[in-house]
# Entry
Amino acid sequence: MTTEKPVKSKPEAQRIPRATRKGPQHTNAPFWMISPAALMMLLVVGLPIGFLIFTSFTNYGQRTLFTGVFEFVGTEQYRTILTDSAFWWSLVKTVLFTTALVVGSVFIGAGIAHLMTRLPNALRYCVTVVLIMAWAMPNVAASLVWSWLFQPQYGVLNWLLTQTGLFGDMTSTNWAADPTLAWICIWLLVVWSAVPFIALTLYAAETQVSLDLKEAARLDGASEVTVYRIVILPAIAPTLLLVTMLSIIWDFNIFNQIWLITEGGPDGATSTLGVFTYRTAFSGNLQIGTGSAIAVASTLILMALSALYIRTLVRTGEDL
# Structure
């Protein structure tokens, strides 16, 4: 009788196929997959920005458009704008107007978002549809319609204000010809178009707040204002910070609404940094090099604001 020798099992490492022991395979496939989008971004965004920076160091102007001749002037264009009082005044107006826009749009958007959480389903759907329709309106079309609403003689808003009797006869009032009224008109337009995004975003964030926390605060005797301040507001703070930062970036770059309603007037009263850049580069003798320098300076300001936002976001522990 023969005894069979026990078969020794191979070590676990030897039974694993060699191909699986080599670790993750490095491949260039992801880079090839994103290359079309990267190439398009380079052509659409990268090259114009590069040309903008290039022209900011030259005397590129009207003569260059006809002859192709230009000269490198180094940082002369930047010294020109930094010593120009019109540049600093337009920057001050831009900062103040951006602050007013952000405060108004975020405050109204947060109020609408909180209101939507307390509406019945049918009414909430109607409000959502109205907000999306307002948000989807192109800003050029909205600006033209807005200018019609505020037109003297036949403007609907002037007629409605006249009917109330609060401000007297405003039928012939030209909002674009008065600096204060022009700012109010543009402010209303920009806030109207910005509120839908903020309201819908904050509403989505507020629906994620635990109902138990709010009920516990109410049982402790907290009013609705206190519940919003100590429970809801901290919970939606990261989203609120996000929409605030996006609003700053968008409102800082406002151009279409101002140009289509007032063209920076009257007498430059509504000439923000965007309007000032456009007029410098494409009006009069076409100082494209100087306008490019202003645009680069504006971009650096926005980059600084973005860096501040990212730093704040990291400090709050929000996952990027």
Summary: The two ends are 72 Å apart (CA to CA). Residues 85-116 form the longest helix (32 residues).
